[in-house]
Amino acid sequence: MTENHAPGKNTPIRVVTIGGGTGQYVLLSGLRKLAHIHITAIVSMMDSGGSTGRLRDELGALPPGDILKCILALSPHQEAVRSIFQKRFTQNHRLKGHNAGNMLLTMLSGYTASFPAGVQALAEILDVRGDILPVTIHQVTLVAELTDGTRIFGENAIDIPRGNQRETIRDVYLVPHHGNHISVYPPVLDALEQADIIILGPGDVFTSIVPNLLVPGLREKLETVTAPIYQVVNIMTKYGETRHFQVKDFIATLESFVGRKITAALVNTKRPDEKLLALYQAQKSDFVEIGFPETETKLILEDFLDTAGGIIRHDSEKLAMAFQRILADLENHQTPQKG
Description:
Layout lengths: L12 E7 L1 H11 L5 E7 L6 H10 L5 H9 L4 H8 L14 H13 L2 H11 L5 E4 L5 E7 L4 E3 L1 H5 L9 E8 L9 H9 L2 E4 L4 H10 L3 H5 L6 E4 L14 H12 L5 E5 L5 H8 L16 E5 L2 E2 L6 E2 L1 H18 L6
Parallel strand pairs: 1-2, 1-7, 2-3, 7-8, 8-9, 9-10
Antiparallel strand pairs: 4-5, 4-6, 11-12
């Protein structure tokens, strides 16, 4: 087992998050405000929808969408810049439908001839606090195999089921665009090696979190590091991915891909308003029940709910407060590394 980095009074606690999409944005927006930590966000590179998907298909660019969300989340200028970066072009026929942030990140990556360098450059512009790393810099497509043998190609197609009937996901895997080579971006392994705590989620299990764990080299590293792994369990189920899941199912699913036990899971206990739940139930999305917690994982049961704007999600400040307590406990009980 690899001995993990030990935080001291003058050394920031190294927090590594693994995910993608809006869930990681919410988590990072809260963590950014905590003192005495260094954040590294490991981000899925399998997004294939919207502006991101077009840039990927037309230019062969790595998908910028989820990375851009993390840059905004970790920037102190988040509120001022978000509306500008999310502004979509409407006039020029080539630019129509793209948003400004995706285009800027793609152009910076092209100019530097390196996607990670483009990410670093945009992070520098926005005074980002922490590091943002693509889980891989290889072009890949996410494929889901359903229980009836059907295969669905692309994160966007998996994420948005067609019709009223769809079998559940039996397996997911990655297909490289060029040759047969997929590997983890090396700085990701360094970040995990030095991590004091690793956080999975929140986010769509099979399209935001698991794709990271499928990249060769990442699971193997997670199996060797000693840093505790925390999971932020989703508040709602998702049709086509996690329908009828209870808390134990979310935990067991990620454990099967991580290759080790989840140390603890943060679980929301606040039930949304029934009228709001009815809107979600119309989309076959249900509130995640604790049920019978048949798991060895410690459950941290609190109100993490945010329903502003009629959207059910985690509250970034509530998550940050919970992790502030967790990190304080981690720092108090961490023993110095033997040299």
